[in-house]
């Protein structure tokens, strides 16, 4: 294997950049083009009509709000239960810890479609169908394992002495968590939040089955736009809006992204 | 050194309660459904293993299973080497390039899954899409609707566009955890680039890479909405993956058969994960020796 020169490397990265960016660029361009003769603007012209149409549609605006609510809830939930669990896995051996870790892994890789039918039945019975809370809970099935995995790596990297001195100073477990542990692994919490965010934001199967009548997220609102005469400009404008929060998240955690998965061997 | 303390269970308990509610209980329910004939969910009729017998004796099942495996194998053999290669190049770049490339390459990960085929169908559209026009201009008769090979190419390229970022992030995480002392030792021994890769970088990346393989295998194995939108399993069932069969069955309200299919599906996933875990942990001591 011959190491490519730095110019060769930059050229290769440029090729990858083009491969990633061009389909996105076309999406953005289409989102600024009127694709149906509507509102007095002819087809195929540059316009902001698609974005204006989103602002005029209550259903589309609601879907954005719904998506944000359930994703935020899901991230809070996964970090809230994931942090203590990750601490337990990082610091202690206990009966069945290995098996439990494997069980969590299994649920991360279980196809969501396998669980969709009973989850719908169960949630309809306890009144959680068609609510953002229901989707937030359901997405925990694959996001709790991810958050535990990432946080466990970060906590293991913190020396044990931090815990011991804090406990000697008379901190209780919760006060140690908030005063010492969380500040020490802040980047890790950011990365875990990022991965919980994206996996919840992009999920489609469970979100669809749980929102048959109300509480539709962005993904389902976009599905609803397809019809006999689909307004592709509108679809693309919604797609662009759906990607923006994710890109903002990536920007904030960019320096720590790769560190999230370092695990002790 | 970790302490042995069973009170740590209390810290795991909240996570376990939620996973039980949204994972374990539904799984038990699916298992129950799979032995019943359900006209409505309140009217079960015990049919034993009939649905399972139907699945394992149907040729259609093995055909879809084969297609799903083939797709996963192709996807892994494209994305894994490519991802590792990019990570290796990143490791020799400065911080600015690393950040830029990582940000760029992870953007497709935040696109909702049902939007990915929409973006790509727009991109390869022969009338309006950039790629579609380019192919027409080059005189390539590209027809993803009726040419099975072309449908497969679209699916593999689209999936690589979507998921390459995850493989790169994981591989880069593995590489950047290697202490500089290892490279210094290799330099003293005048190790070649390939030897450094084979005996230092690859073993050190093993844990994260095995996770990458597992995640990519499972997510490609259950590819649903992307394949459905591109060609709905066509042309002529050439891209009818296991998950598309299952989705069809659920949509037509065949609860019993679809539950049985789900369980078969789940068992395949479990078997692969288990084999994989056994294989990677059994090799660990010898790998430790070679490093």
* Largest sheet: number of strands, sense, barrel closure of chain B: 2 strands, antiparallel
Terminal Cα span of chain B? 22 Å
User: How many beta strands in the DSSP annotation of chain B?
Assistant: 3
Shape of chain A, please? Answer: globular
Order of strands across the biggest sheet of chain B? 2-3
Mean pLDDT of chain B: 83
Proportion of helical residues of chain A:
over 70%
What percent of residues of chain A are in strands?
under 5%
The secondary-structure element order of chain A is HHHEHHHHHHHHHH
Low-confidence stretches of chain B: 284-291
Largest protein interface, residues of each chain: A-B, 95 and 94 residues
Strand fraction of chain B: under 5%
Question: What characteristics describe this protein?
Answer:
heterodimer; A: 265 residues; mainly alpha; 13 helices; B: 291 residues; two-stranded antiparallel sheet; 12 helices; 74% helix; 3% strand; globular
């Amino acid at each position: 294997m011959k190491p490519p020169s730095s110019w060769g490397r930059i050229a290769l990265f440029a090729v990858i950049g083009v491969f990633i960016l061009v389909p996105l660029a076309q999406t953005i361009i289409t989102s600024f083009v009127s694709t149906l003769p509507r509102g007095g603007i002819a087809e195929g012209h540059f316009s902001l009509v698609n974005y204006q149409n989103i602002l005029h549609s209550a259903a589309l605006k609601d879907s954005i709000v719904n998506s944000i609510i359930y994703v935020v809830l899901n991230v809070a939930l996964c970090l809230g239960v994931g942090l203590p669990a990750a601490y337990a896995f990082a610091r202690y051996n206990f009966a069945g810890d290995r098996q439990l870790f494997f069980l969590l892994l299994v649920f991360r890789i279980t196809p969501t479609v396998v669980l969709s039918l009973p989850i719908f039945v169960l949630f309809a019975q306890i009144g959680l169908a068609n609510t953002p809370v229901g989707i937030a809970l359901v997405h925990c099935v694959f996001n709790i394992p991810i958050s535990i995995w990432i946080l466990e790596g970060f906590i293991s990297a913190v020396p044990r002495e931090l815990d011991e001195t804090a406990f000697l100073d008379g901190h209780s477990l919760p006060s140690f968590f908030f005063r010492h542990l969380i500040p020490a692994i802040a980047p890790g919490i950011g990365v875990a939040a990022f991965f919980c965010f994206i996996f919840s934001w992009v999920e489609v199967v469970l979100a669809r089955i749980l929102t048959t009548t109300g509480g539709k997220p962005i993904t389902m609102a976009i599905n609803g736009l397809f019809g006999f005469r689909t307004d592709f400009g509108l679809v693309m404008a919604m797609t662009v809006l759906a990607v923006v929060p994710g890109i903002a998240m990536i920007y904030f955690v960019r320096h720590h992204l790769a560190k999230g998965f370092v695990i002790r061997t | 050194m970790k302490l042995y303390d069973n009170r740590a269970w209390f810290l795991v308990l909240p996570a376990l309660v939620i996973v039980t509610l949204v994972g374990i209980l539904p799984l038990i329910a699916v298992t129950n459904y799979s032995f019943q004939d359900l006209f409505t969910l309140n009217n079960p009729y015990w049919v034993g293993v009939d649905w399972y017998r139907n699945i394992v004796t149907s040729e259609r099942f093995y055909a879809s299973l084969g297609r799903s495996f083939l797709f996963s194998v192709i996807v892994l053999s494209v994305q894994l080497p490519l991802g590792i290669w990019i990570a290796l190049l990143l490791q020799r770049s400065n911080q600015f390039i690393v950040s830029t490339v990582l940000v760029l390459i992870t953007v497709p990960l935040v696109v909702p899954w049902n939007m990915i085929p929409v973006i790509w169908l727009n991109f390869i559209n022969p009338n309006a899409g950039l790629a579609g026009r380019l192919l027409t201009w080059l005189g390539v008769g590209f027809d993803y609707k009726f040419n099975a090979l072309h449908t497969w190419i679209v699916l593999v390229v689209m999936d690589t566009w979507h998921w390459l970022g995850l493989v790169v992030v994981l591989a880069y995480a593995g590489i950047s955890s290697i202490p500089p002392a290892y490279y210094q030792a290799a330099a003293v021994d005048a190790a070649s680039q390939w030897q450094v890769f084979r005996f230092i970088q690859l073993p050190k990346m093993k844990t994260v890479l095995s996770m990458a393989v597992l995640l990519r295998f499972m997510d490609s194995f259950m590819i649903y909405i992307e394949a459905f939108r591109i060609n709905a399993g066509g042309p002529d069932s050439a891209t009818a993956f296991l998950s598309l069969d299952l989705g069809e069955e659920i949509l037509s309200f065949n609860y019993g058969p679809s539950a049985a299919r789900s369980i078969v599906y789940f068992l395949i996933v479990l078997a692969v994960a288990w084999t994989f875990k056994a294989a990677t942990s059994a090799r660990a001591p010898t790998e430790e020796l070679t490093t």
